[in-house]
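User: Can you predict the 3D structure for this chain?
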Amino acid sequence: MINFLCFGYEFYEFFCAHFFALLVFQSIVDNKAHQHMKTDMDKISNLLEQLIQYSPLIAKEPSADAAEDITTVSDVVTNFDVQHFVGSYAMPWGINIALAIIIYLLGRMVVNVLLSIFGKIMAKSKYDDMLVDFLTSIVKAVLMLFVIVASLDQLGIDTTSLVAILGAAGLAIGLSLQGSLQNFAAGVMLLVFRPFKAGDFVDAAGVSGSVVSIGIFTTIMNTPDNKEIIVPNGAIYSGNITNFSAKPTRRIDMTFGIGYDDDLKKAKAVLEEMLNADERVLKEPKYTVAVGSLGDSSVNIVVRPWVKSSDYWGVLFDFTEQVKLRFDREGISIPYPQMDVHINKND
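Assistant: Here is the predicted structure, written as structure tokens:
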């Protein structure tokens, strides 16, 4: 037995790592338990110190005193109190671990039920799908955090320090990502209040174009000449937003100048006839044809018809071209700015 232990000391690290398990196994076999676990652990510690003291015996035959000390291993194993260990340590920890697992599993089930209810409520509210998915992820993360904290608390782990660490980490991240968080907050506000949606033609942050998609941090827009522009949500939400597609109808504001020598009533009648002939011009609200101003070289007539938003550009371009052609046929001039210079010759 002594020779075996001395030889096994060459594998001291392995022996120390598994020594406690060997003691428990031997105690179960002998079925003798008389002392408490604290006394056993003290003996184990003393024994390990003695093993270190007699480490030179690896290279030679151990003495009688060393053999006498090493034989105390059998006494330690014999006196290990398994019932006390099970009752004071194994059972309480086993119960706490089982309860923590049950709390976690039940918590996940409750979270899934709550998320299902939340998803149905959000679906009825007709919010954007991206916003619904984002809010669902946040709610899930918060609820699962509560479940995890409850499970750790059941194990006896102090969660106060954990919450403090998470709070400090959140503050540090928030300070380092101020710009991104501003875009994030603006993206949430855009998705909640929806001043525009995908497909609308808007003017925001100095950019005019059709909205392709609204993200959490940026909004993608296509300009009329088919350029894709990615605009930060913070820049959009902090400025004015003009949505040209928000209403089903729009008014076209046009101005046409005629010469002072031309027939004003005839020009107005021609314009009204052209508006009545265009089916895209709405009957209600009624269009407006009136003299807007008397310019330096022309009488300016304002023409303001109402059309569908989808017909805005088509009517504007077509009507402007037709006015020029019709005025030419009717002999109505469209003057351009000019200056008359008179030279007096002195004798």
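The first strand starts at residue 201 and ends at 204. Residues 176 and 189 are 22 Å apart (CA to CA).
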